[in-house]
Design brief:
Blueprint (H helix, E strand, L loop, with lengths): L19 E4 L2 E4 H5 L3 E6 L6 H12 L1 H6 L2 E7 L3 H15 L7 E3 L4 H5 L14 E6 L5 E7 L7 H17 L13 E2 L6 H8 L4 E4 L2 E4 L2
Parallel strand pairs: 3-4, 4-5
Antiparallel strand pairs: 1-2, 3-6, 6-7, 8-10, 9-10
Length: 215
C-alpha cells in the first residue's frame, strides 16, 4: 500500500498564515493587506487555462459586489509574475475583462504549501481550486476546496460571505439553503426564563430550541 501524503492547511478558526509575496499589484505583505477587512483568497491551477480564465474573470466581473461587502480579493497560482501579467493582458484583450485584483506569483510554491493548496494526489505542481474566507481579525472562517477539473460557483461564494457577515453582526445562524432575505435561526435559550420569553415572542417557532426570525 502506498504511503499517503498529508497536506496541512489552515483550519477554520485558525489565524491566517502571514507571508510576503510578489503580485500583479507589486510586493505585498498579507497581514497588512487583510488588516481590518474581509478577504477572499483563492487559488487556480495555472494561467492560460480555460476553466481558470473563466473563474478569474468571474471574480473580476463581480468585484464590485465584493467591494460593497467590504471584501478584498486576492488570487494565486504557481506561475511567474511575467506569466500573470501576460495572462491578465490576454484576458482583457480577448474578453474585455480586467483581472484588477492582486494575483500572487507563487513560483516557489511557498504560499501554496503554507495554505495546503498543493495536494499531491491531485497534482504536485498545480494548486487546487481553494477558497479561504478571512475575517477582519485575520481569522480563517470558511474554506472551500475543488479539484482541478471542477469550476467554483460564484453565487455560492458570495452567499456564504454574506452569511458569515450577517451571522457575526446579528449573532444568528443560517438554516439549510439560506439566501439573503430569508429568515435566520436564533440561538437556543440557555435558561428557563429565556425559554419562557421565547414562547411569548413573535419568532417562527418549530420548537423551543429551533426558532427563526427575519432580520
Amino acid at each position: 500500500m502506498e504511503e499517503q501524503v498529508v497536506t496541512k492547511m489552515p483550519a477554520i478558526g485558525d489565524m491566517a498564515p502571514d507571508f510576503h509575496a510578489n503580485t500583479t499589484h507589486g510586493p505585498l505583505q498579507f497581514s497588512e493587506y487583510i488588516k481590518g477587512s474581509w478577504v477572499v483568497l483563492f487559488s487556480h491551477p495555472a494561467d492560460f487555462t480555460p476553466v481558470c480564465t473563466i473563474e478569474m474573470s468571474g471574480f473580476a466581473i463581480r468585484h464590485d459586489e465584493f467591494r460593497e461587502l467590504g471584501t478584498k480579493l486576492i488570487g494565486l497560482s504557481i506561475d511567474s509574475i511575467h506569466s500573470h501579467m501576460a495572462w491578465v493582458n490576454n484576458v482583457k484583450k480577448n474578453t474585455g475583462v480586467l483581472l484588477d485584483f492582486p494575483i500572487i506569483a507563487d513560483i516557489d510554491m511557498k504560499v501554496s504549501k503554507l495554505y495546503g493548496m498543493l495536494q499531491p494526489n491531485e497534482s504536485e505542481t498545480a494548486a487546487v481550486r481553494a477558497v479561504f474566507f478571512i475575517d477582519p481579525t485575520g481569522k480563517v472562517r470558511l474554506v472551500m476546496y475543488y479539484p482541478l477539473n471542477v469550476g467554483r460557483n460564484m453565487n455560492e461564494i458570495i452567499r456564504v460571505l454574506k452569511a458569515l457577515q450577517l451571522s457575526d453582526e446579528h449573532k444568528v445562524a443560517m438554516p439549510l439553503d439560506w439566501q439573503p432575505g430569508d429568515k435566520v435561526i436564533v440561538p437556543p435559550p440557555k435558561t428557563l426564563k429565556e425559554m419562557e420569553e421565547r414562547e411569548k415572542s413573535d419568532y417562527e417557532m418549530v420548537d423551543f430550541y429551533l426558532a427563526k426570525r427575519s432580520l
